[in-house]
Design goal:
By secondary structure, this protein is α/β, with parallel strands linked by helices. It has a single domain, classed as NAD(P)-binding Rossmann-like Domain (Rossmann fold). The protein is built from nine helices and seven strands. The chain has a seven-stranded parallel beta sheet with strand order 3-2-1-4-5-6-7, sandwiched between helices. Bound molecules: nicotinamide-adenine-dinucleotide (NAD).
Length: about 300
């Protein structure tokens, strides 16, 4: 439970846009040292200039979070510049859709690489540094927040690749919470599960590496992209509001952070079907027209 952020250090991945950028803004306002991590250089440069102008001490690093060696170098650089971080936000992520059997190996490697391996690297590299700091100083407090998605709890159709990555992040983070509790009371963990919030997520392809380039888009992938563009751009909750929820959760030691708690009815119906051993329900139970439209589009000749 971190109550006073002043002079503490945050490591934020995906800091050039969306939730990462908004958390950096709050961190700067609260007097934190900021480690800004992003793969997109121009966005990173802008974030760095803004946070420095706001008075923060900044270490900015262009890093691909899916890359083990780059993440290891980042961890060393953080240790050298600021010491163990207090708030680690494993947040960088990309989106992709389409029928689950139509995704290419490159699609899987890209999405699992950023969304899952990025979190794995952040956890495996920064947790030991935080535990060491906690062992040395009884007043040290740390918190790790991993960004999953409601997609990690709902299995919406035509986006299996993203659902699988985010479900793994939910599982990893719940386990992290339990594992930390075995070892220390000084470090907490939370999972951020946003629903649809306007950010740069629908143009994730902008940062897709050439080596994992997309093949020609299938019909289901094009439909998936159009649907997520519409859902994300019409989201009413802002990224700044979500970032505030993240800081509130750290101070309250609250594990689950939901941007849209009203969407939890869909999670409940999924869980109910699991425990009553009935087949999966419509993940958009309150809006059956979504599934109907998708079915009609995919079955049209
Ligand atoms: N916006 C939503 O509706 C929504 C919903 C659920 C989950 N999420 C999750 O929120 C997280 C943040 O996304 P956002 O919505 O702020 O989108 P965003 O595109 O605005 O921000 C993501 C940032 O991650 C960076 N990034 C992409 N690949 C990277 C890599 N390999 N290494 C380092 N940085 C990389 C991007 O350059 C970008 O700055 C993601 O994990 C996303 O899956 C978003």
């Amino acid at each position: 439970m971190i109550q006073n952020f002043k002079g503490t250090t945050a490591v934020l991945t995906g800091a050039g846009s969306g939730f990462g950028l908004e958390c950096a803004r709050i961190g700067a306002a609260r007097g934190m040292n900021l480690v800004l991590v992003d793969v997109q250089q121009d966005a990173l440069d802008r974030a760095r200039a803004e946070m420095e102008a706001a008075g923060a001490q900044v270490l900015a690093r262009k890093v691909d979070v899916s890359n083990a060696a780059q993440m290891e170098q980042l961890a060393k650089d953080v240790q050298e510049r600021f010491g163990a971080p207090h708030f680690v936000f494993n947040n960088a992520g990309v989106g992709a859709g389409g029928l689950v059997w139509e995704n290419t190996v490159a699609d899987w490697e890209w999405v699992l690489g950023v969304d899952l391996w990025g979190v794995i690297h952040g956890v495996r590299l920064f947790t030991p540094m935080m535990l060491e700091a906690a062992a040395k100083d009884a007043s040290y407090r740390g918190h790790i927040v991993n960004t999953a998605s409601m997609a990690g709890l709902l299995t919406a159709p035509n986006m299996g690749i993203y659902n699988a990555a985010k479900a793994a992040v939910v599982s990893l983070t719940e386990t992290l919470y339990q594992d930390l509790k075995l070892i220390t009371d000084q470090i907490g963990a939370s999972i951020l599960c946003p629903y649809f919030v306007p950010t740069g997520i629908t143009s994730s392809e902008r940062n897709r590496p050439g080596a994992l380039a997309a093949g020609e888009l299938t019909k289901s992938q094009m439909i998936g992209q159009a649907m997520s563009n519409k859902a994300v751009s019409s989201g009413k909750v802002t990224a700044a509001e979500v970032a505030q929820m993240v800081f509130d959760a750290i101070s309250a030691n609250q594990f689950y952070v939901f941007s849209h708690p009203n969407a939890l009815g869909n999670v409940k119906s999924r869980m109910d079907s699991i425990v009553s051993i009935t087949n999966p329900p419509d993940p958009f139970l309150a809006r059956p027209e979504i599934g109907a439209k998708l079915r009609a589009q995919l079955r049209a000749g």
